[in-house]
Amino acid sequence: MFGLFKKQITLGGFGQGIVQLANEAISSDCSRALGMRFENFDASQGWARFLERKGISIPTQKLHYRLWTHCAIQGTCTQFEEGQRRTITQSAMNAFSEKLANYDVGSTYSVLESVYRGQYKFDRRREP
After folding, report:
1. DSSP assignment of 26-74, as one string?
2. pLDDT band for position 45 (50/70/90)?
3. pTM of the model
4. Closest CA to 28 of 76, 53, 57, 65
5. 56 CB-near residues (< 8 Å, 6+ apart)
6. Residue ranges covered by each domain of the chain
7. Is 1's pLDDT higher than 80?
8. Beta-carbon neighbour count of residue 93 at 10 Å?
9. Measured distance CA(5)–CA(66) in Å, rounded
10. Rounded to an integer, what distance in angstroms lies between the CA atom of residue 19 and that of residue 118?
11. Cβ atoms within 10 A of the Cβ of 48, count?
């Protein structure tokens, strides 16, 4: 009873599960965050259509979503030790079958780690 026969999930399986279970919520938040940068935002016909009408191509939207997802998962996993955080994050991001030209899980992970440690040097115009 109460979990007696439950199998323990691997860290990699946990990362992949995050992407599968939270995909819709993360996607909605990501699109809304990008769309609300424009005046009179209206997603009544879907965020992707609205963003395309505003000049944001589907490939750019996909890259934004991938980076948004990566940041959300890695940021949430800062409560875990680095090895666990890396395994969960990389497994989650490797669950995406489509490779994107401007996205690399390893370099994105490293940059975010330096940001979380306060070691990253932002462009002066973006620092505030």
Report:
1. HHHHHHHHHHTTSTT---TT-HHHHHHHTT--HHHHHHHHHHHHHHHHH
2. confident
3. 0.84
4. 65
5. 34, 64
6. 11-116
7. no
8. 22
9. 35
10. 27
11. 16
d(CA 107, CA 116) in angstroms, rounded, equals: 14
Which residue has 């424009």 as its token pair? 38
Q: How far is Cα 48 from Cα 88, in angstroms, rounded to an integer?
A: 28
> Identity (one letter) of the amino acid at 126?
R
Q: How many alpha carbons fall within 13 Å on the CB side of residue 84? A: 11
Which single residue is written with the structure tokens 């992949």?
16
- Nearest-angstrom CA–CA distance, 43 and 113: 34
Residues 30 and 65: their CA atoms lie apart, in Å, by 6
Cβ proximity of 84 and 77 under 8 Å: yes
Q: What is the mean pLDDT of residues 14-33?
A: 92
Task: Write the CB contacts of 67 (distance below 8 Å, at least 6 apart in sequence).
Answer: 103, 108
Maximum CA extent, the chain: 57
Question: Residue 41: CB partners within 8 Å, gap ≥ 6?
Answer: 35, 50
Task: Identify residue 60 by its one-letter amino acid code.
Answer: T
